[in-house]
Amino acid sequence: MSKKTAQLTAFALPGGESETSDISRLIKKYIFHWPLFLVAVVLAMVGAYFYIKATKPTYPIVATLEFKVPVAGEGGTVLNKSGTETQLDPISNPVIVENEIEVMQSKKLMYQVIMDLQLWARYDLTSGATKKELYKNTPVRFSLITENGSLDGLGEKLEIILKDSKTFTLADEKDGDKDYAYSTPIKSRFGTWQLAKTGEFNNYPGATLVITVRDPDIVTDDFMGKVKVDLENKDAPFVILSTTDQIPTRGKDVLNTLMDRYKTDAMTDKNKEAENTINFINSRLDSLRSELAVSEKEIERYKSSVGMTDISSQAQGFRDIKQLNIRTLNEVDIQLSIINGIERSLASSNHAILEKLPASSGLLDDPTLQALYDKLGDRIAARERLLATVPEANPMFTPINEEIKSLRETFDEKVKGIKSALLTKRQTLQSFGGGIQKSLELVPDQDRTYNSMKRNQESKEKIFTFLLEKREQVSLRYASSISDAEVVDDAHAGKSKWPLPAVIYGAALILGLGAAAAILYAREMMNEQITHRRQIEDAVSVPVLGELSYQESDTPIVVTQGRGKFAIGEQFRVLRTNLSHLHANNDPGRVTLFTSSIGSEGKSFVSSNLAVTLAYASRKTIILEMDLRKPKVSGIFDLNPDHPGIGDFLSGKTSDLGALIQKSNIPGLDVLSCGPILPNPSELLETERLDELINLLKTTYDDIIIDSPPIHLVTDALIIARTADASVYMIRQGYTMKEELDFINEIDKAKRFPKFTIVFNGIRRDKFGYGYGYGYSYGYGGYKNSYYNSYTDREKETFGTILKGFLRRF
């Protein structure tokens, strides 16, 4: 708010909206319209009452399921109680509770429940306008033999009248009623069906039933939307199943059947998986038996082909034979070296003394050779003894020499024979050693081939052994398998969940209050007219000089001297005080211009009554009727409209101002009427004669009030504004449009009016809730003196006035 606005707000009537917070204003506004809130709340409460009476109770159904969740170890194994790891099998596979919850919430499972309980057929017992749904205690049971797929969401309704124990009547408005026997197939648009009696049949003689047959898929969706499966605590594997139903028995059956169906399907899936696993193991074992037989046959053939029994021991034997062959070959070489030495010794001298053969030479093994060697040595020794005493040419040496020669030749032949045998043996050993070496060289390749074949066989043997153990393990578990889920609590119903009277009545109260508030808000938002001072202050920066209440009266002058009849008179006195502050002086010659956007906003009424108020304050006042097109001031003061006036002065027809001024019936108040209506008022107002007129009046009067035309229709007020000291713009509650506030802002920004202010006129507090039932310090009211100035007499209220005031609060 501008400084200028803040100053003038203090001049306005006490208790104005500018002094009230937004929240307080909103609350007081709603309090003012309390009858509307009361009616809305009463209607909402009545609706809540009938809703509670008409609504069937809904019961919560709860069941609890526990899952056996083993502790999972690393690598997908399960830890037993001792902490050792055991390999998984299809049956002992740990369950994931979250996955099982999704299974329980699946449509497949719920569809099976619906079909098991036959919930796609509903039975309603009708009696007049009332209807009662039957569940297990239905007198007949509907069976659909064949279906043609024409069932929809609404289903097919069959009206059945239980005629007697043998027949029933099928009501049909189109084709007429027909009687049928029980358990007789009947063809209808949606398929072939029949009715069978139940044990409850005798309890419903002559009853009328409405059987509604719906598509099971749609019924499944309906029940799925009501069933919830929750894991409340992830550390504890307890799953809570819940639903709501108007028939507790049906709700319990749904949850119990759902749990049973889940457990049955889970066991079926587990056993089926175990059976598949056992079948696979058996098939694999048969295949492995064949493969093992082939592998063993290949190893047998390979061993036979390479002459292998045990490759490691056989290789060691080859190594031992090779070492023995090497030792034997070395011995042969030693013997050959000895033989060569003997040959050299014999070849060196025919009579040389032979050295004694070593015992390790191997020659001693031949006794003949040894004897021959010894005899030859003795004869050579004998010759050496004879040579010591007898010359070598002595004939005595001839037989000895011959004998030595003969022995030497015999020995030499014997040595050659041994040498030849040794060379043959040496060659044989060398050849045998080469064969052994080749055999040893083949051992690594044979070992690699054999190990590969053996490894393949052993791998298949391990798999075969593992599968045998696994088959026994799975078979044992299959024979003793139990469900992973156990029912902790069967489905049980609680107290009625809905309707809750406290909640419904509370919601009705809130709904009633909200509906009334919404009506007020919508009504205010849709109203394009200005109804509150706050709308003015929020939209424009022009200060509000004062507020004037709406007043119905037989006379246009509502201000009286002293204690008046109308409370609005005191408001005009406050406006007079604010006008004095606006001019900032009480000097003579103050000129105040009154205008508005359009006609009927009360500028003539306000300017006239303010002039009367100024006159009563002993200020000599004149009011100028400058609405030269549609004058009203003369009529307000009951003066002659044909009397010469402003138009005559401005047109130059007369300069005698005193002859133009008329006396009113209010002391100190004169009127200068417009005179005859002229065709060119705007041109006359632009002449200097207007300035001359105002200057002449300033010398005589304390206040000059100018009633000018509406500014949004003609430009006269803008022309006259040059002569004014202050300007007052009229806004009428419930009449002036909100769009005019933009126009006022444009005028204010253009500075077309001096000391531009606004008067909020015609306030009807009992119609628009303005002020919301509280008055000013003097107790101002509105229409027909519903509230009175404390200085005025209070009229007697009638039933009619009270009723009108009450109805206007809606």
UniProtKB/TrEMBL annotation:
Molecular functions per Gene Ontology: ATP binding; non-membrane spanning protein tyrosine kinase activity
Gene Ontology cellular component annotations, sorted alphabetically: plasma membrane
Transmembrane residue ranges: 34-52, 502-522
Coiled coil: 271-305
Keywords for this protein: ATP-binding, Coiled coil, Kinase, Membrane, Nucleotide-binding, Transferase, Transmembrane, Transmembrane helix
Taxonomic superkingdom: Bacteria
Protein name, UniProt field: Polysaccharide biosynthesis tyrosine autokinase
